[in-house]
Design goal:
The complex is a heterodimer. By secondary structure, chain A is α/β, with parallel strands linked by helices. Chain A has a domain of 164 residues: 3-Layer(aba) Sandwich (Rossmann fold). In chain A, α6 links the parallel β6 and β7. The longest helix of chain A is centred in the middle third of the chain and has 14 residues. By secondary structure, chain B is mainly alpha-helical. Chain B folds into two domains: 30 residues; 207 residues, Orthogonal Bundle (MetI-like fold), CATH 1.10.3720.10. Helix content of chain B is 78%, strand content 0%. Chain B is globular, with a radius of gyration of 23 Å. The chains are: A alpha/beta, B mainly alpha. The interface between A and B is medium-sized, with 33 and 21 residues. Bound molecules: adenosine-5'-triphosphate (ATP) and magnesium ion. Chain A: This is ATP-binding cassette domain-containing protein. Chain A: Keywords: ATP-binding, Nucleotide-binding, Transport. Chain A: InterPro entries: AAA+_ATPase, ABC_transporter-like_ATP-bd, ABC_transporter_ATP-bind, P-loop_NTPase. Chain A: Pfam families: ABC_tran.
């Protein structure tokens, strides 16, 4: 309802997001830069318009770093090399950090409106939409709560609400459901799955630890290897039966098969 | 536990104060010190009751100077902090200079201010404002320079510009710091006003002290000193209360007081 006409019907060939040969290195601490960390190495990723891509991988493999680069936020001090065209810098993307990033001096509803305010949305429209989403996200009644009065899962849902409210064409979500119980998680998954991405020329990149969540929501799942993060599998989720895809994903995540 | 804490925090210092007062009273009486050197506390108390009705205008004058000066200083300090945070060149050119001016204790400037601004309220308000603005400025600038990267990244990740960063993150993040500076400033304000009144003026606690000094009425000076202490305490409590009201998101911190660590 607020997406501008220009984002409608982009050419099918143009990717919404693209990085190629992306390498991110964090210099080590101390004068001699001991312990420099290569977070990502030669990562290629292309996200088409209308596509939902999930990124999975072991903890510390660079998923959040990848999402930051896609959002146009270079982590300070890091060296970033590679080509990134159509990176979601500026006004087309909304990024949700792994830590919720809620502003402690704003109550829940004003926090939810931060993204809308940045996007220059009409105040009344944004307010009405936020209130409706508070209901849908199970946050009704907490409009006036301070962030520190909310539980971890509630804070996450509020941060997701803030990110989705302005209706930006590209959503970059870093483990949005990490702190949720199974049932709330399923409800939020259903909500996310109900977003009409292709119809509005939108795209989503979702970082998650949960293979089943990735299979449920995504059109494509990208598996990153242990640090330094490399793409070890880029799998299109088949429409009919995900059992094979699931096995392939688990194998890519755990090549030695230790956990099986 | 609670009883024990109340005992330590209220009863113990009160008892110590009482012991000091009694010692003072006894010491003065035994040593036959003349009252124009050091009167006993009982006489100070009697004088306090006597002069109390006459002090109304003086207290009002001093409080006006301190209050207005504090407000002006806080506003100027916060505005300057905003400019420093918003424009790097202001920060580079002005901030070192402002810091350098603080090597001059503000009371030293009082004679100049009186020369320029006359004997009325204005020079005192200016002096209090000069004293108050620096702690507010430093606290606010520090708070704005050290905003949580988590918050500024969130705003940037939603497409926020520098203007959004300023209004959504930097300015609100500076408020608790600025209020902390204001609390510090509040403890200086009345003292600065009184010192300015020492030099010139028609009314105010400083004027009262000077008049008492000329008449060797040490008991009156001591009454004024006690009054300055009480007023400063009240002003601090007022600013502290307003600061709490202005930052309702701040969690009530755990009660931790020096000397109460259980270890
Ligand atoms: N600001 C930083 N400074 C230095 N090193 C960093 C920084 N951010 C990330 N790293 C390093 O980069 C690597 C990847 O971090 P990242 O946060 O992208 O991992 P992740 O895949 O999101 O992990 P998790 O699943 O636990 O969230 C880590 O080894 C981390 O130590
Ligand atoms: Mg992460």
């Amino acid at each position: 309802m607020t997406t501008s006409p220009s984002t409608e019907a982009p050419t099918a060939a143009a990717p919404a997001l693209e990085v190629a040969g992306l390498t991110v290195t964090f210099p080590g601490t101390g004068r001699r830069a001991v312990g420099a960390v290569v977070a990502l190495q030669e990562v290629d990723l292309e996200v088409a318009v209308g596509e939902f891509v999930a990124v999975v991988g072991p903890s510390g493999c660079g998923k959040s770093t990848l999402l930051r680069v896609l959002a146009g936020l270079t982590p300070p001090g890091a060296t970033v090399t590679g080509r990134s065209t159509g990176t979601a810098c500026g006004r087309s993307a909304a990024w949700m950090p792994q830590r919720d990033g809620l502003l402690p001096w704003r109550r829940a509803l004003p926090n939810a409106l931060v993204g809308a305010r940045i996007a220059g949305m009409d105040r009344a429209v944004a307010d009405a939409r936020a209130r409706a989403l508070f209901d849908e996200f199970g946050l009704a009644g907490f409009e006036r709560a301070w962030p520190h009065e909310l539980s971890g899962g509630m804070r996450q849902r509020l941060a997701l609400l803030r990110t989705c409210l302005p209706g930006r064409p590209i959503l970059l979500l870093d483990e949005p459901f990490g702190a949720l119980d199974a049932i709330t998680r399923r409800r939020m998954n259903a909500w996310l799955a109900g977003l009409d991405l292709a119809g509005r020329g939108r795209a989503v990149v979702l970082v998650t630890h949960d293979v089943d969540e990735a299979l449920l929501l995504a059109d494509r799942v990208v598996v990153l290897s242990d640090r330094p993060g490399r793409v070890v599998l880029d799998l299109r989720v088949p429409r009919d039966g995900t059992a094979g895809a699931r096995r392939a994903l688990l194998e890519a995540l755990d090549p030695a098969g230790e956990a099986r | 536990m609670l009883v024990r804490h109340r005992w330590r925090r209220v009863v113990a210092p009160a008892a110590a104060g009482l012991v000091l007062l009694v010692g003072w009273e006894v010491g003065v009486r035994l040593s036959d010190l003349p009252a124009f050197v050091l009167p006993p506390p009982s006489q100070v108390a009697r004088t306090a009751v006597e002069v109390a009705p006459l002090l109304g205008t003086d207290v009002a004058t001093t409080l006006t100077e301190a209050g207005l000066g504090l407000v002006v200083g806080a506003v100027v300090g916060l505005l300057l902090a905003v400019l420093i945070a918003a424009f790097p060149w202001v920060s580079d050119t002005l901030y070192p200079l402002v810091t350098l001016t603080q090597t001059v204790p503000t009371v030293v400037l009082a004679p100049l201010l009186i020369l320029w601004a006359g004997f009325g309220l204005l020079p005192k308000i200016v002096l209090v404002a000069l004293t108050a603005f620096f702690p507010v400025l430093v606290a606010a600038v520090t708070a704005m320079a050290t905003v949580d990267a988590e918050h500024s990244e969130m705003v940037a990740g939603l497409g926020g510009t520098r203007r959004h960063q300023f209004w959504l993150v930097q300015l609100p993040a500076s408020v608790p710091g600025a209020l902390g500076g204001l609390r510090v400033a509040a403890t200086y304000a009345i003292g600065a006003a009184v010192v300015a009144e020492y030099l010139a003026g028609q009314s105010g606690l400083g004027v009262f002290v000077q008049r008492s000094r000329k008449g060797y009425e040490v008991d009156q000076i001591l009454v004024a000193v006690a009054l300055v202490a009480v007023l400063t305490g009240l002003l601090f409590l007022l600013v502290d209360g307003l600061a709490r009201l202005a930052t309702p998101w701040q969690r009530p911190s755990l009660p931790s007081r020096p000397g109460r660590t259980p270890l």
